[in-house]
Design goal:
The chain is α+β, with helices and mostly antiparallel strands. It contains nine helices and 14 strands. Strands 7, 8, 9, 10, 11, 12, 13 and 14 form an eight-stranded mixed β-sheet that branches. It has a six-stranded antiparallel β-sheet with strand order 2-1-6-5-3-4. Helix 2 packs across helix 3 and helix 7 crosses helix 9. The longest helix has 19 residues. The protein is globular.
């Protein structure tokens, strides 16, 4: 197993086993920060521009200083090169960008006082990602406990920002696993399909790809955006509209799309088997090519 890699925003490769974060960093004590997760494949990081755009969007929602895209891009290059040098070009890597509000009580006058914390890590892609790609996932729908109006009515809820506060998402995944499921699709209090804890929902209906609108309080999916852009160029119809679980059951196929797993087909929803259509392989290939379109 390759060793994890830690890189500071200035591009310095650090010892991953040496202390780095202060104990009072707000990333640790409050989850007050944001992150992005990229896939390193065949020696380069995928969809960098889309991830940096989303990082900036999340930062604005949390009122963090605007990330310097050039700084982050340089650090991504350094981290990717370090991973390839260590693990080899054929080894997939999970590259995480972390940006927090910084220390809660940094000593007055120190360089750290009042400043954000920013760093990158790279590690091996979990085995579950490869299994989800090849075998698909069984999914349970769980009520997220809020209306689709919350995103507009309560912006302080930070719906649609990729924050470090992921405890409820991890709890949902544990609940699913305890009940024999691989993953989760959240629904609103009205029963609308939202998203997965770490994925975007895409339904394939003939030659049309459908995903829920971000305005109802979900994270804009970078892989979904890239896939829909390529699909539109190649003659697919793409739609962003409300979906219900019944719509998923009637689709040709349903997918959980994400940056690292890429495309995981939903094989069962709430215990109801979902068969794969003939276009399933075509969709997987479309996603693979879409995340290759933003090569630096």
């Amino acid at each position: 197993m390759p060793q994890s890699i830690l890189v500071s925003l200035d591009g310095t490769v650090l010892d991953p086993d040496a202390p780095f974060l202060c104990a009072d960093d707000l990333a640790v004590v409050r989850g007050d920060g944001i992150f992005e997760t990229l896939l390193i494949r065949d020696g380069w990081a995928r969809c960098v521009s889309l991830h940096l755009q989303r990082l900036a969007r999340s930062a604005a929602m949390l009122e963090l200083p605007e990330p310097d895209a050039d700084e982050w891009r340089f650090a991504i290059e350094v981290a990717t090169e370090a991973w390839v040098e260590q693990a080899g070009e054929s080894a997939e890597g999970l590259l995480r960008l972390v940006y927090s509000r910084g220390r809660e009580s940094a000593p007055a006058g120190t360089e750290a006082a009042g400043g954000p914390t920013a760093f990158l890590t790279v590690g091996a892609v979990a085995d579950r990602a490869a299994a989800a790609r090849s075998k698909g996932v069984s999914v349970v729908t769980l009520d997220r406990g809020y209306s689709i109006d919350v995103a507009g009515d309560a912006p302080w809820q930070l719906l649609g920002a990729k924050t470090l506060s992921y405890a409820s998402n991890m709890a949902a995944l544990r609940h699913a696993a305890d009940n024999g499921y691989d993953d989760v699709i959240y629904t609103s209090s009205e029963g609308a399909v939202l998203e997965g804890p770490r994925s975007t929902v895409v339904a394939v209906m003939g030659k049309t790809l459908v995903t829920p609108p971000v305005e109802i309080g979900i994270l804009p999916g970078t892989t979904q955006v890239a896939t829909f852009a390529l699909a539109a160029e190649e003659g697919w119809d793409t739609e962003t509209r409300m979906l219900r679980p019944a719509d998923l059951l009637e689709s040709d196929s349903v997918w959980l799309v994400s940056s690292v797993t890429l495309a995981a087909r939903v094989t069962a929803l709430n215990g109801h088997p979902l068969t794969a259509s003939e276009s399933a392989g075509e969709f997987v290939e479309l996603v693979d090519r879409a995340v290759s379109a933003d090569r630096p």
